[in-house]
Description:
Number of helices: 6
Number of strands: 0
Largest sheet: none
Structural class: mainly alpha
Number of domains: 2
Strand content: under 5%
Order of helices and strands: HHHHHH
Amino acid sequence: MTIEEARELWSRAVGAVRTGRLRPDAYRTIRERLVVIRDGFGEPERARLELYLDLLAEEWADATAATPSTEATERLRQAQDVLADGMREDGDRRARMLRARVALRALGDLAEEADEPTERMAIGRMCEPLTLLLGKLEHERPAGAAR
């Protein structure tokens, strides 16, 4: 699939979200398809597709949002703090990997506690940057390693 075809898929999905015609299972299917397409490209196309995914997620969140409960709001604040801690760049590679893994587990626990689907989705979305960071760190050579 070309970038333009992916953009068309994204555009149709956003239109369906805005008109209330996109069911949750169809949203997940389209999102999964865009992720597969994104993974088939390198930069800068990959970044463009990542932007499409983010914008689609925002549209979906806006369309399905209800006013979160106080507990949900607190859990989301906790999740944001966990994400920020997990993404910190201080320390060596091993410390950063450990911190990211601990943050992923903590986000998983918070998502399990979530009562509202939009809250679970938001917390789940916070796992993506940590997963990408872990992948990057796992493929980096440790400092001082032979080439």
